[in-house]
Amino acid sequence: MRRVKPALPWIGLLLVACAGPVPDPAELERNLAGAREVDPARRAELDSQVAEARTALAASRVVEAKAAVQRVLEIDPRHARALAVLGRCRLATARESTPPALDEYRLAEGELRRASAIAPADPLVALLHAEYLVADGHLSAAALRVDEGLAANPDDQALLELGGRVRFDLGDERAAIPLLSRRVALAAADVDSVWRLAQCHARLAAATFDRDERRRHATAARDAFHLNAALSPTDEEPLLGEAWAMLLLLPERIDDETCAPILALYDRAARLDPASPEPAFGRGVAFARAGRDAEARAAWREALSLDPRHLASLLELAASHAAAQEITEARVLLERALSLSPPADERGRIEDWLKAHGI
Questions:
Q1: What is the dihedral of CA 317, 322, 324, 325, to 10 degrees?
Q2: What is the dihedral of CA 330, 335, 341, 346, to 10 degrees?
Q3: Do 125 and 119 touch, CB atoms closer than 8 A?
Q4: Domain 276-359 -> CATH class
Q5: Cα–Cα dist 359/328, whole Å
Q6: pLDDT in tens, 18-62
Q7: CATH code of the domain occupying 9-118
Q8: Domain formed by 120-187, architecture
């Protein structure tokens, strides 16, 4: 899944890339131009020119876009959208050099802060400012800026998408879910938002000990993964997610009839990515829940044949042998698991088991 990453690991280099005083974005924000009278017909023309400039910017025609909004600002220096587009043009210009030009970079921030001071509720201004903050690596500030825009424009699809994505990348699933849910309700074909929504519910379902909350989030995860699978028919990940959520919703022991649709999902996933160990691992879990231990072990061995370092399969296979009092087989598998440097909590459990069995 794509992740929003802080875009400026080079920020320290900028300080040596520029000579002379660096523009102060806060000072630029304070020095707003005075208001001018613009008649409605002329303002409509200016708005159209800014929209055309944004289209040019999206097509990487930065010089054209910058010239267009500067012409608008000569007539109306407080045109918030023109200032915001100018800020994004300056950001694009800053990134044309290596290292990026700090003066243009700070001017970009200043223009966007000016735009936000003039029209904080404008959805395009909020979006462009928040996107800048994401590029600057300030995800928390970007999330707050999106919230400001959504307060006045609760159904703005671009803000909902960006807000859900940023909250997801911050690991704030509870804040991401309402944004992603609304985005998906308005744009059901947005496969990335559907995926993030499924992941948010899955994470919360896995983390809670409350039975009702687990069921609620697992159900939502199952449904979102199902939609994601329909939107991405060549991607195995949503099939694995849907099968996992279905297992989470079921009792510890299931019968063959209940197990069948889950196995079908894992089989579909395996056909899409024959080299992945995950479908075989999931089949093993489903077989074990159905009491089909021999088939479960065979599935985990299949997963290990695809990836000998697949820790989850090693641990499940070891647990199966341990439950059958096949201590030697379990020991060999657990020692192999230890060699893979498992997480500290998993390592502790393995070492405790080995000690308890005199190993």
A1: 150
A2: 40
A3: yes
A4: mainly alpha
A5: 10
A6: 445 656 777 766 777 777 888 899 999 999 999 999 999 999 999
A7: 1.25.40
A8: Alpha Horseshoe (1.25)
